[in-house]
Amino acid sequence: MTVTTNVSREVRVATAPAGLPRPADLTVAEVPIPEPGPGQVLVRNRYFSVFAALRTLLGGSVPGAPFPALNPGDTLLGPAVGEVVTAPAGSALRPGQLVTHPLGWREYAVLDAAGCQPVSDDLPDPAAHLAQGLTAYGALTRAARLRPGEAVLVTGGAGSVGSMAGQLARLLGAGRVVGSTGSAVKTEAMTSEFGYDGAVVRGAAPLAAQLIKAAPGGFDVVLDLVGGEDLAAAVTAARPGARLVLVGALAGQLSPGGTGTASPVELDSFPIIVKRLTLTGYSGDGDDDLRQEWARRSGEWLRTSELRFPYTRVEGMDAAPQALHDVLAGRYRGSVIVAL
Fold first, then answer.
1. What is this structure's pTM?
2. What 3 state SS string does the chain have?
C-alpha cells in the first residue's frame, strides 16, 4: 500500500463533556502521518467502531479499566480494522495485510507489531472483524457455561453486543432467548434478526413482570449488559441456581445526569440467597484461547450466514462525532462502524 499524502485526520477531545458528550465536545484535527519507530507498524485504518464505553473514558475512566481516561487534546481510541502500510524487518506482517488493533478514530496509526492481530480476508465484509461477539461468546461459554435447552436473558439486547448475544445463545443451544431494550421500535429487529424469541421494553410496564411473562419458568442464564433496573428485574425473574454474568454497565454509561464512571444498582439480597443465584463479573480480555476459538467459530458462522453482524455504516471521519452522540442517545440497533 502506497501513502499519497503526509496528512492524517483524527478525532480528538475538544472539551471535557458536561453530561452526555455532544459533537461539539470533539474535533477533527489534521496532523502529520506518524513515523513508526523500531519494531513498529504503520497502519491505515479502513473501519473503526463507535461504542458506548467511550462515555466512561471521557468521564475519567474507572480504576482497573483497560483504557485510560481521555482528556482535552487526546485522540479517541477503539477497535479498528486497517491495512499495514509498513512493517519492521523480520515481522510476520506484510504491507497490504488486514489487521485489527485498538487505535481507531484516526486515519493512520503507529503501534508495536505485537499490538496488531492479523485477520483473514475471506469474510464477505471486512468490517465484520469488528463484530462485538467475543465478550458475549466468552460469557456464555466460559462464565455461564450455557447448557442446551436453557432459558437465556440478555439485557440490552439490541446494542452492539446484545445483537450478537441473542444469535450466539441460539447457536449454542439455548431453548428460549429473551432480550430487554429501552426502545419499542427495536423489538421487531430483535425477534426477526437478532435471534430472540421475545423482547421486553424498559418503561412499558414493570420490567420484572414482563420478564416473568416472557419466560414463566424463569431464566437459567442472564447476560447483563445494562445493570440498573434490568439487573434488578433479572434477579426477580431468575430461576433457582441461575447464573448471572455481568458484562456491561450501559445504565451508567447512558445516564444523562452521570459521568459514565459509575453504574449503581439496588438489589434485593433475599432472592439471591434463597434461589442460590451466582453473580459473576466477566471480561474476555487477555484470553488468547478464547480469541482463537472465537475467530474460528465466528468466521464459520458468518460465512454460512448462521450468524449476522448487524451494523450501521457511517461514512467518513467528519461524521464520527455525531455518530458517538447518536450511539449514546440510543438511536442505533446493533453496532456502528465508521468507514474511511
1. 0.95
2. CCCCCCEEEEEEECCCCCCCCCHHHEEEEEEECCCCCCCEEEEEEEEEEECCCHHHHHCCCCCCCCCCCCCCCCECCECEEEEEEECCCCCCCCCCCEEEECECCECEEEEEHHHCEECCCCCCCHHHHHCCCHHHHHHHHHHCCCCCCCEEEECCCCCCCHHHHHHHHHHCCCCEEEEEECCHHHHHHHHHCCCCCEEEEECCECHHHHHHHHCCCCEEEEEECCCHHHHHHHHHHEEEEEEEEECCCHHHHCCCCCCCCCCCCCCCHHHHHHCCCEEEECCCCCCHHHHHHHHHHHHHHHHCCCCCCCEEEEECHHHHHHHHHHHHCCCCCCEEEEEC
